[in-house]
Structures are given as C-alpha cells and as structure tokens.
Amino acid sequence: YLESVTEGPLVGRHVVISAGGTREPLDPVRYLGNRSSGKQGYALAASAARRGARVTLVSSASLPVPGGVELVPIETALDLQREMNARAGDADVIVMAAAVADFRPAEVGATKIKKKFGAGDPEAPTVELVRNPDILAGLVEARGEARRPYIVGFAAETGDADGDVLHHASAKLERKKCDLLVANEVGAGVTFGQDSSTVHLLRPGREPVTVGPADKNVISDTVWDAVQEELL
Ligand code: CTP
Ligand code: CA
C-alpha cells in the first residue's frame, strides 16, 4: 500500500483519469454497456501514484483500486461528464481512458420493461437512442488558450478500407485537439480485457511513437514519460 509517495516526477501534480466503460440504463435492471475492462486506465492511475501524483480515478469498473488513488464511482456518460468537469479546474493532467458510450437510450423506464406489453403491441420494443456529449471535446474547449490541464485522449482503432490505424488516429487527434492521443490497435480478441496491447502516441506536429506489443503497465509508464516532458 502506498501511504504517500513524496518523491518522484509527478509530486505536486493532480491527475484525473477516467477508466472503463459507461453503463447507460434502459430500465432499473438493464443497461447498454461495452467490453472495456478498465485495465489500461487503472494501470495509468497506479503508475501516476508511484510517480508521486495525487490521483483521482473516475470509473465504473470493478477492479481493485490502486494504493493511494481516490476512486470516484460513476455509471453513465452524463455522470462521467459531471465528475470530470467538476475536477478539470484543479487538474494538472486529464486522461480520458474511458470507453464512453456514444449514445444512450432516449427514455429510461421507471419500471422493468416487460416482455409482453399489451394486446396489439409489437413483438419486440424498439430502443431509441440519443447522442451523449463528447466529454473530451468539452474539456479541451473549456480549457481554451490555457496550457493547463494537459489533456490526453485515447482511441481504439482498426485499419479499414479508408486507411490504417495511424491514419484514423491522426484524423482523430486533429478532430479532438487534445495534447496527446494514445491510439490502441484493436481487432478480434485484441486489447479489450487483455493485459497487453500495441499503442501509438500521437502529438500535434510530432512523429508518432509506437509502443508494444507491451504490458499495459509498460505502456502506462511510456505515457507518463511523454506527459512529464510537456508539464510546465
Ligand atoms: N470520448 C469522450 N466522450 C464521448 C466519446 C468519447 O470523452 N462521448 C473520449 C474517449 O474517452 C477517448 C476519445 O474521446 O479519449 C476518443 O474516443 P473514441 O470513441 O475513439 O472517439 P469518437 O469521437 O467517439 O469517435 P468514434 O467512436 O466514432 O471512432
Ligand atoms: Ca466513440
């Protein structure tokens, strides 16, 4: 257990990390979710704590919380947005490692949806979705011209007919306007829930750096090495 780390490159820094998936309720017993395990975000939190940072981890994942890390539990994308926005002003670094649901059910049933609704009802209900806010884009916009907090985004990409992983990741960095984009290579059975992955670190105006395949702890240390270079 890390009581408190008083030496290290991140002493005196507050880092706020989101991790894992979000759960978007349909009714009191059901939700729409995704396969994100939270492992990469938790590894980043542990690594930052070992380097002396004060670490706040905003997550719905049910993994053991690393020593010295404060957990803020959330469920939905809207919860996550509220908790991240509330802490952005005090953060030196924000890492959006969470897999945020792009959509949520338009309506949440107050009572359990029943299989049979009534005579003449359709065989199965249709779930209408609405867009969730882009939390990362909101954090970048709210920062404006300031240099603090340093903002890190994550992306899970596959190559396709439009281009390879790096092509899609570069486009996403330009869209998101964060300071560093960590792009995971994903495919069938790759990355989600695994202990290792291959990532590309992309920064505006710099050549991409590829790490891996490597353990998520190794990737975390490489990410913090890169972030530390940029901190004022
Ligand atoms: N993100 C976010 N809010 C959302 C969706 C994503 O803050 N509503 C963040 C993620 O935490 C991640 C980054 O944006 O750091 C990229 O997420 P990704 O899903 O790859 O990007 P999208 O813009 O949602 O694009 P798409 O899913 O269409 O590839
Ligand atoms: Ca998305």
Automatic annotation (TrEMBL):
Keywords, ordered alphabetically: Decarboxylase, Flavoprotein, FMN, Ligase, Lyase, Magnesium, Metal-binding, Multifunctional enzyme
GO cellular component: phosphopantothenoylcysteine decarboxylase complex
Cofactor(s) listed: FMN; Mg(2+)
Region (Phosphopantothenate--cysteine ligase): 15-232
Protein name: Coenzyme A biosynthesis bifunctional protein CoaBC
Species classification: Bacteria, Bacillati, Actinomycetota, Actinomycetes, Micrococcales
Residue intervals of the DNA/pantothenate metabolism flavoprotein C-terminal domain: 10-229
Any one GO molecular function term: metal ion binding
Main function: Catalyzes two sequential steps in the biosynthesis of coenzyme A. In the first step cysteine is conjugated to 4'-phosphopantothenate to form 4-phosphopantothenoylcysteine. In the second step the latter compound is decarboxylated to form 4'-phosphopantotheine.
Functional pathway: Cofactor biosynthesis; coenzyme A biosynthesis; CoA from (R)-pantothenate: step 2/5; Cofactor biosynthesis; coenzyme A biosynthesis; CoA from (R)-pantothenate: step 3/5
